């Protein structure tokens, strides 16, 4: 149902943005030489409005402490600034005279940046929609934080996915991975194990604990030590938006046969996580390549 709400929300924001753009340009010149600037205004207005409204959605569902939440008001302000600059250009009254060479550099960087963003996001979406390989030797459930001794929503859906996979593949061994944070009563690994055994009836003998890690890198590094075989087929269970980067980290840590087993990306904040993941992937690429 929430997917329907997001579609409706986006459609309303898009239509309202087009109306806003029309009002915004009502006194601007409509000559043919300005067609591209006018088109950009009609693109920036829905983007700016959607970003501002989605920022409020993020605050409602996740709060101000959500990392990178500032991205959305920044994007909204950027869109508004570009609309103001474009309208001034359409009216032949630019308030900032920008040399052509600077414009060309900006446009080139923008196109290149947008292309890189779309390529990386395509890889992220591809990993999050992949079909898990059957009969893997192991699956590793990455920790995702606790509230006391209870799983957070991201970890809860990872546990659900792990239970589904374990029931469908009875010979697979699971590694519950994740240490204990300062505000957590038990380790994330122990929470994963308890939930699988008590809530889903998974045989405790099929679950191994890795309860020292504090990051995805350590999740996978310590899990590989438990497995003891870099050639073993291993599924990584994490939220879909995180699968592509987790796979990159697994390869960097020495896994030779790692596969995506994507859990649900919870909406509506999942949109934010999927966009934010771009920066995580780029950071990883810069750091390790």
Care to describe what's here?
The chain is of the alpha/beta class and 289 residues long. It has two domains: 2-97; 138-288, HUPs (Rossmann fold), CATH 3.40.50. Helix content is 60%, strand content 10%. The strands form two sheets. It has a five-stranded parallel β-sheet with strand order 5-4-1-6-7. The protein has a two-stranded antiparallel ribbon with strand order 2-3. A hairpin with a 2-residue loop joins β2 (146-147) and β3 (150-151). The model has no long low-confidence stretch (mean pLDDT 93).
What is the strand and helix layout of this fold?
Blueprint: H1 2-24, H2 35-62, H3 71-90, H4 100-128, E1 138-142, E2 146-147, E3 150-151, H5 153-168, E4 173-177, H6 188-200, E5 207-210, H7 216-227, E6 234-239, H8 243-253, E7 258-263, H9 269-288
Parallel strand pairs: 1-4, 1-6, 4-5, 6-7
Antiparallel strand pairs: 2-3
Helix pairs in contact: 1-2, 2-3, 4-9, 5-6, 7-8, 8-9
Précis, in short:
This protein is an alpha/beta fold. The chain has 9 helices and 7 strands; from the N terminus they run H-H-H-H-E-E-E-H-E-H-E-H-E-H-E-H.
Span between N and C termini? 41 Å
Strand order, largest beta sheet: 5-4-1-6-7
Gyration radius over CA? 23 Å
Helical residue percent band: 55-70%
| CATH hierarchy, class of the largest domain | Alpha Beta
Number of domains: 2
Return the structural class.
Answer: alpha/beta
What is the count of DSSP helices, taking H or I runs of 4+ residues?
9
Strand content: 5-15%
Uncertain segments are none
CATH topology of the largest domain: Rossmann fold
Q: Count of DSSP E strands?
A: 7
Largest sheet: 5 strands, parallel
CATH architecture of the largest domain: 3-Layer(aba) Sandwich
**The CATH H-level homologous superfamily of the largest domain:** HUPs
Mean pLDDT: 93
What sequence of helices (H) and strands (E) makes up the elements? Answer: HHHHEEEHEHEHEHEH
The outline comes out as elongated
């Amino acid at each position: 149902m929430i997917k329907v709400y997001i579609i409706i929300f986006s459609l309303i924001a898009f239509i309202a943005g087009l109306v806003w753009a029309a009002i915004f340009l009502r006194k601007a010149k409509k000559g043919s030489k300005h067609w591209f600037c006018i088109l950009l205004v009609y693109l920036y207005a829905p983007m700016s409005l959607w970003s501002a409204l989605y920022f409020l959605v993020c605050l409602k569902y996740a709060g101000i402490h959500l990392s990178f939440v500032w991205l959305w008001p920044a994007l909204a302000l950027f869109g508004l600034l570009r609309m103001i600059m474009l309208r001034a250009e359409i009216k032949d009254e630019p308030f900032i005279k920008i040399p052509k060479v600077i414009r060309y550099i900006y446009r080139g960087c923008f196109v290149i940046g947008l292309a890189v963003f779309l390529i990386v996001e395509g890889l992220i979406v591809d990993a999050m929609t992949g079909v898990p390989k059957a009969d893997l030797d192991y699956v590793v459930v990455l920790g995702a934080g606790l509230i006391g001794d209870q799983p957070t929503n991201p970890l809860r859906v990872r546990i659900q996915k792990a239970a589904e996979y374990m029931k469908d593949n009875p010979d697979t061994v699971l590694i519950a991975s994740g240490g204990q944070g300062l505000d957590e009563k038990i380790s994330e690994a122990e929470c994963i194990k308890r939930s699988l055994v008590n809530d889903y009836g998974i045989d405790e003998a099929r679950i191994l604990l890795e309860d020292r890690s504090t990051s995805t890198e350590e999740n996978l590094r310590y899990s590989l030590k438990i497995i003891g075989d870099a050639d073993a087929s291993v599924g990584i269970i994490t939220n879909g938006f995180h699968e592509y980067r987790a796979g990159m980290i697994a390869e960097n840590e020495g896994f030779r046969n790692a596969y995506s087993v994507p859990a649900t990306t919870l909406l509506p904040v999942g949109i934010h996580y999927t966009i934010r993941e771009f920066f995580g992937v780029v950071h990883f690429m810069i750091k390790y390549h």
